[in-house]
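S1.2 Input.
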Amino acid sequence: MSKLGQALEGAAADVFKQLDPKARGMLEGLVNSGKISAEDAVTGLKSLATKATFNRYVAERPRDEEDKQRLADSEAAWQKLQAYGSRMSGALSEAGRKTQEIQEAQQRGEISMDEMTERMKPVHDAFKSEIASTRAAYGAPTDQTAILSDASGFTKNMQGFKSALASTGSGNGFADLYAPEGEAAEQKLQDLGFDRTVFGNAFQKFAETVDIPGTGSKSDAPKAGNATPAPAPAAESQATAETPDAASPPPQEATGKPASADPGNAQAALSMLQSALASGASKGGAGILGAVAGNTGDVRDTVTSGLLEALKAGAGKPQTGDAQADGTPPA
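S1.3 Output.
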């Protein structure tokens, strides 16, 4: 038996049955040529198979009251972010209009630089007050983005999936979900061209055969006689690398529109406020940006520091979901 055939076990052996002859032959060739070890190939197959099964679990597991409440909370948070962004965009527009009027008056010689600085102060104060009242009405954006960060219930899905697999016994043949060694092995396979263009939907087909506790199976597993590795082809396929379906993030439950999907949404508006004010001095724009860019000394300092500090203190920065230390996506 070949090196790969001897190493195949657990979910890797089962998913190998779902591969077509071309994909099997490519794997065999990669192992025989020494481009990847049989152990790494098996680890990568297990990892991809586990993710595909997890994706199916997320899509099909029964929903409970906690899930319904989380979706309702996410929808409410999204609505608050939209309202917050809309109101703050209006406040910025009004501040820009007034600032432009003041600046143009100074440029026409109607008021002095000192008078311009004095007239800018109430514009700044009004903008700061609007931030405070908007926060009082809709809460801090970070509060809402924290709710939206787990809109898909990723933490619950992870825990439920692990519990479901554990109930089948320790010898179920799956990998630890998102384990570093599995991720590394997947990357090796992908770098060598073993990707979706080669294996197609084999991992999804495998996942449908898994009898997940509480979910069941969708189809029968192929017969064991199909598991023998095929001879390596004369020339290995060099497919274009792309992220496999099985390794893609789990499907999300239906929530309000994701906070990053619409350029007119709240996060975009907040980002616009911060980036516009921060970069305006280098662009020489009109309005409030022009007031910052077109003057020096006290005027620029007053406008820049005042508005930026008001924005930072009032709006805060939306939280971002960084990967955790163990390599798992943010929960």
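S1.4 Remarks. Residues 3-63+153-247 form one domain.
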